[in-house]
Write a structure and sequence with these properties.
The protein is of the alpha/beta class and 314 residues long. The chain has 7 helices and 15 strands. It has one domain (38-306). It is globular.
Length: 314
């Protein structure tokens, strides 16, 4: 261990604590990984480490490892941006992801914050209207990042040692990864409702990501013949019951897990191209986003090109 210039003589490790022990504790803590992730994102995002948010359950103040923000475009009526909310985890033992038998990415993915907190509406002449998440309104599933992305998984677990054998724990990674990211995302979505002005709306693509410094393994098939593969990018979809005013509904949360060594490739080849596609598509329908509604020929088989101002002739 070196000493910085001007270090006082009394600032030394005490008896019983060695530099090797301290270095091992630092390596296993995750903080060096947080710095690596922040440095990687700094090339394309404005980065905040230890980004604060309010836990949705306990209402306590907590922090997320890394928050990245990128301004995309700003017209007089539409402000576009992208945000990544990142939790970092290090593990010598594998994270195991179980691929879904019926993989499906929810229409709410990816989350888009803003629009003064309102959800756009789709109108069908002579039929009625319904609300649509921004991701559906802009048909973001047309792009490969959403529709042809990584393996979609419904559950995952962290491997733990149990004597000489290995065991899987689903509760620990769920509590330490998914729940913090969900809370951070909800906090950001609520926070971003007030962004904009009387004449302009804001739309910010918001993506929760977990960067893992450790083995990532995907699993296909049943317990009789599981097929395991090393996989650097997976997408976990979780459903959550939600009690509305007069009925029960469901929310979906999507978290992308990315291996540390794949992060640069993920950002360059996957994330940034998709961010640009989002911005281009949103700008092309600026008036409809500002109005918060559009007309489509039907609710089931419409395309992005079908979007028209409500009341306009087809």
């Amino acid at each position: 261990m070196t000493e910085t210039q001007g270090n006082p003589e009394s600032n030394q490790l005490q008896a019983g604590v060695t530099a090797e022990q301290l270095e091992a504790a630092v390596r296993s803590s995750g903080y060096p990984l947080q710095r690596v992730v922040a440095e990687e994102l700094l090339q394309d995002f404005r980065v905040t480490e230890e980004w604060g948010y309010i836990d949705r359950e306990s209402k306590e103040h907590r922090t997320l490892d890394v928050f990245g923000f990128r301004r995309l475009s700003e017209t007089t009526g539409l402000w576009l941006s992208a945000a990544v909310l990142v939790e970092c985890k290090r593990s010598d033992l594998p994270y195991v992801f179980f691929e879904a038998a019926a993989p499906e990415v929810p229409r709410e993915f990816p989350a888009v914050a803003g629009l003064h907190g309102k959800m756009p509406e789709l109108h069908v002449g002579g039929v009625g209207s319904r609300s649509a998440p921004v991701a559906e309104f802009l048909r973001l599933a047309d792009f490969g990042f959403v529709s042809k992305g990584p393996p979609v998984c419904s559950s995952f677990a962290r491997t733990e040692r149990k004597g000489k054998e290995l065991d899987l724990s689903g509760a620990v990674p769920f509590n330490q990864v998914v729940l913090p990211l969900v809370s951070a995302l909800q906090h950001f979505m609520n926070q971003h409702k007030s962004v904009g002005s009387r004449d302009a709306v804001s739309a910010c693509l918001a993506l929760p990501i977990c960067v893992i410094d450790g083995p990532m393994v995907s699993v296909q098939g049943g317990p009789e013949a599981p097929r395991l593969a090393m996989c650097p990018w997976v997408r976990v979809v979780r459903q959550e019951a939600a009690e509305e005013r007069h009925w029960m509904s469901w929310r979906y949360y999507v978290v992308d897990f990315v291996h540390r060594a794949y992060l640069g490739t993920f950002i360059k080849n996957q994330l940034l191209p998709f961010v640009d596609q989002f911005a281009e598509r949103a700008l092309s329908r600026e008036q409809l986003l500002r109005a918060g509604k559009a007309s489509v020929p039907n609710f089931d088989a419409w395309t992005f090109q079908d979007l028209r101002p409500v009341g306009a002739a087809g």
